[in-house]
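Could you help me review a protein record that somebody else here produced? What it holds is a sequence and that sequence's fold in token form. I have pasted the whole thing underneath without changing anything:
=====
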Amino acid sequence: MNVPAELVERVRGILAAQGSGPTPARVAAALRANGTVCGDAMVLAVVEALRREAMGAGPLDVLLSEPGITDILVNGPNEVFIDRGSGLERIALHTGDEPAVRRLATRLAAAAGRRLDDATPYVDVRLPDGTRFHAVLAPIAATGTCLSLRVPSRKVFTLEELVAAGSLPPGGASVLRDLLQARVAFLISGGTGTGKTTLLNSLLSLADPSERLVLVEDASELRPNHPHVIRLEARPPNVEGAGEISLRDLVRQALRMRPDRLVVGEVRGAEVVDLLSALNTGHEGGCGTVHANSAADIPARLEALGAMAGLTREAIHSQISSALQAVIHLTRTPTGTRRIAEIRAFTTTPTGQTITVPAIEFPPTGPPKLHQAATLLAPHLKRAA
């Protein structure tokens, strides 16, 4: 039942003045005091609305529980966009005024143990249900408090399901399966929302059940369907600036946990050095994701991340060339469809610079197209190269 926001606001004010909780009896009394005559269904609807505001995600609760939604964006009062997998679309949803959106943001941050106020006007946390939550308060966000929620997938897709969804051509499934079984060290690249985590979940689910997977993430998103998974999650500093546990710390700890596959959910900083060092010292089959506009940009992207750890250009390129064999690049079409665009191999130029070269291209229609560099991956492929 749809409950007028004004009615909920009036009942909230009455209960707040009384210092009472939103029980059905108290809400019914507040409605009568407000001069509103309603039945049991309306009373229970108001109770539920108040409960969501006090404990859940308020008006966003219904979106968080809707299958298929991957992103929820609130750009100030009553301006809500969602992504169901086909790009952003605006929906009609009443969030309340700016104070209501701000209260929602601070409550969600508090649920994750973080502070959000004028002194700390932005936050990036993981909620108890696994949703990744980011908020920026007004007036830093000029249009009003902005919320961004990345909803974790409730399902791990198989490669066959990705083929059926159009994200992968039929011939690509066998190629990816071969690369995984050959314990090739690889990265999955692409922009935001291209499906990197979805694909990595699918591939890790294919790992041999006897293997021990150690996952290192900034915010836990990977949920592979595998019997032996260890998850390590980074921790930001507290309000005093202490207690931080970085991805780099966790990668080092993961190496002492006998991983058969070391996985970094998103390579985004100095931890790239420890990951590459691990892949160079016997930890085969390691992988991760990285943000990049194209697969050709990966070496430059890793070079920039390595510089954050103090490595020279020559050192990082030397590490890349011996640690990584392939990069799988994902794109998103103008219609919102996520798809695997190509697989590139790493090679070294005569000057010692590492570059990626096209190996297998996946056109929007038709079979995969093999390039000359596919011979670099040929030893790992049973069927395609």
Summary: The two ends are 58 Å apart (CA to CA). The mean pLDDT is 85.
